Amino acid sequence: MKKITYITMLIFAALSAHAQIESVNQYILQPDCISDPVSATDTIIHVSVSPPTIVLTDSDGDGIPDDVEGTGDLDNDGIPNYLDLDSDGDGVPDEVDLCYYAPGDPPTGCPGSIIDRNVFWLHGYQGNELSFQLVADDVETRFKANSRRPDYNASQQSLASSAANVETDINDVINGQINTERNFIIAHSMGGLVARTLGQMTNPSTGTPLYNGLITFGTPHQGAFAANTLVDNPQALDNALTNACQKLGIGPFLEGINNSGALGSLAVMFGFGGGVLNTACDAGVALGFPAIRSFAEQGVEAELTTTAAASIPEMPTDHKAVFYGIEHGHDDGSLTPRFIGALTNSPNSFPLYGADASDSLGLAAVASQLDFYVTRMNFWYAIHALLCGGNSWLCWSSAESIADAYKEGVDWFPTLDPTWQELIGARQTKLTQVGCECAYYDYGNYVGSQIYYGEENCSELNEIDVVCGPYYELVSFQHPSDGFILAESAMNGPGVNYPIQKMDGSNHMQMKNDSKMKIAIKIIFEDSFGEGEEGFFYTEFR
Questions:
Q1: Terminal C-alpha separation, the chain
Q2: Domain residues of the chain, as ranges?
Q3: pTM of the model as a whole
């Protein structure tokens, strides 16, 4: 978790600073060879996303969808499972059979005594076995379930190596247990992709699944837009980091203070490392960027891009569900500070289901850093005015230079949120032709102009006294996200066959232990996604 925090916050600082107006072109798609006069304005379009429609057929009316029961014939009675009310032929109807994959005994339909089911909690990118600790422990305490937390942190060079590590852990847990088809996986973020890569594990002797459900939280099923930037354009991070260091470092450097207090918090937050922040933040560039670039080139990130995600196998198991978060603040500049709060304050540092509080901590932290720069800027401008008397505008002083340097830092903060959104794909800006602009002349004298929206071929509008060219707008498409993963990626789990669940107000990190997770636990273990006690995920209280 420390590594992802360091790297992500370093990217925060680097990319956020690079959102200055003069460098915004880095993030927009420029049309080729614009030779005609160009005009431009800025338009924001909010993209609406809807969960996929799930259509399930239950031909025999036993409450188990056809695609779950399949076309096989477990009891060899000539009736395919999807039409057989007792697929395994043990006398216990499928609608109440907890183990319909194998003949068992009434009333449960399971062979032998029912033992507590295993729930495998898979952590996300750069997480560890403690990522789900509070929630997993709560589930084990209240429900007849054993919370298992595999740790594949040391094997994240690829999804395959991560999956192999998880496979070993699951085999060690199962080790001859019965009723394994009642087990299931709950995975956060990349853990869901690891589960997809792992596939369906089965007992080699009986073919019985070792787990038969998969639930993901914030998993980038369609890929992570942030990985695209990290993998495809890492050099941008180098330039952006230098810019950020200059904006935030020159004022304190000229004043001769080190990174203690507010500046120290900012340095730690953005991963600049120890020592005085010099004018170019050379240490930060030297130590930070190569680490990021190396991590991108050698780590698992290349498998998380939106292109690579298409090659990952579909969600395995018969029972598949997804939860996705949409954090607040996409329009008011608070999305990134909220996410910073969750990154710098572990969800497990809060009381059970109390990580919502990280929002206010993040907002307060960023406000505190901004206040530091504003306060120092005003202080040094006041000193300059005092030194120069009433002629401060004609007077030069070193105090003014320090104040101007702090103003660079003040001006940097408003770029934080829009640029982070560009990085993760929550805001995708493109220079787009939206029509034609025609200039009208009267005997060679310019009269005025008119914009014709919707026109594409501007040359067809030209006349003797009318000259037309493309009219462009900077169009920003706003996509809902959890502060790191786009909702459209997290909600579209390939093969999902349970109602899609939205966690309104949850961001990618805090969702592991916030109030929406408390609701999710009820949906899973008590309600079984609306199916009640007959549903697969329903688990008895202890």
A1: 32
A2: 427-478
A3: 0.80
Amino acid at 142: R
Q: Tell which residue, 130, 138, 151, 486, has the closest CA to residue 330.
A: 486
User: Is residue 14 helix, strand or coil?
Assistant: helix
Q: Which of 23-32, 64-73, 275-284, 466-475 has the highest mean pLDDT?
A: 466-475
If one counts every other C-beta atom within 10 angstroms of the C-beta of residue 246, the result is: 20
DSSP tag of 525: I
- pLDDT(350) > 90: yes
HEC string for 148-176: ECCCCHHHCCCHHHHHHHHHHHHHHHHCC
Strands in 319-326's sheet, in edge-to-edge order, are 145-148, 117-122, 184-188, 213-217, 319-326, 501-504
Q: What is the pLDDT of residue 233?
A: 74
Q: What is the pLDDT of residues 80-89, one digit of tens each?
A: 877 888 887 7
> Which residue type is seen at 365?
A
The C-alpha atoms of residue 73 and residue 433 are separated, in whole angstroms, by 59
- DSSP for 245-303? HHHHHHHHHHHT--S-HHHHHHHHHTT--SS---TT-HHHHHHHHHHHHHHHHHSSGGG
Whether 295 shows a pLDDT value over 80: the answer reads: no
